[in-house]
Specification:
- This protein is of the alpha+beta class and 165 residues long.
- Helix content is 21%, strand content 26%.
- The strands form two sheets. It has a seven-stranded mixed β-sheet. Strands 1-2 form a two-stranded antiparallel sheet.
- The longest helix has 14 residues.
- The termini are far apart.
Length: 165
Amino acid sequence: MAKTHFQGNETATSGELPQVGDNLADFNLVTTDLAEISSKDFQGRKLVLNIFPSVDTGVCAASVRKFNEEAAGLDNTTVLCVSKDLPFALGRFCSAEGIENVTAASAFRSTFGEDNGIVLEGSPLKGLLARSVVVADENGKVIYTQLVDEITTEPDYEAALAALN
């Protein structure tokens, strides 16, 4: 189990993020219009997974906004923002915020969190996804990962985006 923190208190995740060089685990998620998407839908494209507990928190919302802003300038890259929020909540947020450059998807009925070792095992956020970023190349090979040390802080956008080059 990996360790992170929530408001300064250590908490564990259900496992470990994939390692650089690993193949990205296959996944199935649900988009804001209730369509199912899978890892196969992104074959041949670079993929940035912005993973977070809930879009209804300030830091999570900020990460979606920032990746949406950055995604506009990325070639052959999809930014996928993933949480266990219901698709309706993700859709409301994206609509209200004008989020159009990223794809928001829910892991509410999948094993995405378990397969990537990012389900929070403790803290008041137990059961939600730990704030993390995974970047994969066009072949689905992991080229960058970050489990944020403190859930209440934003990920290292610069490092994640630099991994795409």
